[in-house]
Amino acid sequence: MSNSTYDIVVLGGGSGGYACALRAVELGMSVLLVEKDKLGGTCLNRGCIPTKALLHAAEVADQTREAATFGVKARFEGIDLPGVHAYKDKVVSTTVKGLTGLIKSKGITIVDGEGRLTGPTSVTVGDTTYEGRHIVLATGSVPKSLPGLDIDGERVISSDHALTLDRIPQSVVVLGGGVIGVEFASVWRSFGAEVTVVEALPHLLPLEEETSSKRLERAFRKRGIKFELGARYESVKHTDSGVIVTLEGGKTLDAELMLVAVGRGPVSSGLGLEELGIEVERGFVKVDEYCRTNVESVSAVGDLIPTLQLAHVGFAEGILVAERLGGLDPAPIDYDGVPRITYSEPEVASVGITTKVAEERGLDTTSFTYDLAGNPRSKILGTQGEVKVIAQKDGPVLGIHMVGSRVGELITEGQLIYNWEALPSEVAQLIHPHPTQSEAIGEAHLALAGKPLHVHG
Ligand SMILES: Cc1cc2nc3c(=O)[nH]c(=O)nc-3n(C[C@H](O)[C@H](O)[C@H](O)COP(=O)(O)OP(=O)(O)OC[C@H]3O[C@@H](n4cnc5c(N)ncnc54)[C@H](O)[C@@H]3O)c2cc1C
User: Fold this and answer.
1) In this predicted structure, what is the pLDDT of residue 3?
2) CATH code for residues 156-262
3) What is the pLDDT of residue 4?
4) CATH 3.50.50.60 segments of the chain
5) Which of 15, 211, 229, 230 has the fewest CB atoms within 10 Å distance of its CB?
6) Bridge partners of 160?
7) What is the spatial distance between Cα 290 and Cα 299, in angstroms, rounded to a whole number?
8) Which of 328-350 are b and which e, b meaning 16 or more Cβ less than 10 Å from the residue's Cβ?
């Protein structure tokens, strides 16, 4: 038993857990953070950061191949995979080191080890029990599979394995056309692999605006990425050289390996939740809009709860809990207002709601789609895509949906527009710098406000 009682004991040092810890000490609380692996969790070590490093290497490869288009002489000789890994690992290790230093410098007590809830205010690690006035669960998520589908780490792999793969596969079947599947499909294609994405729903990135998914599909088709949509996985058979994947209906796909990217499941079993009577649904810890569980002294944040599985959502939930426990009065999160980015080539980015959701909510809408063909900066970059803005009739902007190289960086403006409930006519007043891709956002709002500028027809 440890003698001191902390204000907060946080279980899990990923995006949600460490953000909560940092904000809590800022507010004068004492915090103990339990982490069984590396600080930074999935995002830093096995998620956001390493995948984006791979995607950047992929972009460099594509640009080298296409150098002649821009009048530059360069020869693409191939991918030096150990070199790519060294670059990626350096980005990851220096970021983890920086974060670890930051957390330590703030006076947060870090405990290395696997923790378990042993009471409404206690967490036990090995033989030691730590007491907190409050416990914050932030144990995150791990790759999921389908019933009967064994991820062996050799021929059938998860994103964890894909990040450390020692070779570029000749061919891959990517099971799942969500964000993670689409990003790996993009990387592997740029590295020279034959890629087929299998998605059970009718489109890639099925939660995005349908027109964005269709744009992405068109771009992927041009890049030689194949996909099977509305296709359900049935079985996988190992062969000497790889796998044969069978889809419902009998179609088969041969490949060197299969990436299973069908989602991530919460890390909630074995934590002592049942014993304490903490309510769980499909493995996710149930919380209210303030991230409170049904046990008063226990909160939960991040991928462990059934909200958007994004690092910045984890940050926001961690901060919300710290501020609530610190006696402030934080507002609940508007999850529609969280920006979402898929960092493939081309990128897909959105904030707010889709046309489909607006219809489901009975909202009367209007929209305008600005084609990046009319945007000179996009032409210079050689990218195609669009910015679609959906607004309530005579009302504020409800959703911004974009496709194109680098558009992820633009969604932050979309975030301000949506979250400040701006009217198209108000955004139309703002002057966008020329020539930038952000002008496409300005143009879409000008058009919605009834004064289109660079718009044909
Ligand atoms: C391939 C991939 C790419 C991604 N890309 C992006 C992206 O570009 N942008 C984005 O916003 N999100 C991205 N994500 C999602 C993002 O990584 C997660 O949403 C985020 O990491 C969730 O944070 P968390 O704190 O809830 O959980 P995690 O980051 O999973 O952290 C949980 C931590 O708890 C620890 N832990 C678990 N159980 C215990 C225990 N019993 N005792 C002690 N410690 C424990 C784990 O070791 C882990 O460090 C990506 C994810 C993946 C897999």
Assistant:
1) 58
2) 3.50.50.60
3) 79
4) 5-142+265-335, 156-262
5) 230
6) none
7) 8
8) eebeebeeebbbbbbbbbbbbbb
Residue whose CA is closest, atom 49 of ligand 1? 41
At 279-305, the pLDDT tens digits run 999 999 999 999 999 999 999 999 999
User: Ligand 1 mean position to 438 CA, how many Å?
Assistant: 31
pTM above 0.70, yes or no: yes
Choosing from 56, 203, 312, 434, which is the catalytic residue? 434
CATH 3.30.390.30, the chain: domain bounds: 346-448
CATH class for the region spanning 5-142+265-335: alpha beta
Is-contact 19 333, C-beta < 8 A? no
Residue type at position 276: L
Q: Is there a catalytic annotation at residue 401? A: no
CA dist 4 and 27 (Å) reads: 19
Reported as a single tens digit per residue, the pLDDT across 213-225 is 999 999 999 999 9
What CATH number has the domain spanning 346-448? 3.30.390.30
CB-CB contact of 159 with 261 (8 Å): yes
Query: What's the gap in Å between 371 CA and the centre of ligand 1?
Result: 35
Q: Is the pLDDT of residue 1 over 60?
A: no
The structure tokens listed for 382 are 């050689």
- DSSP 8-state code for residue 330: P
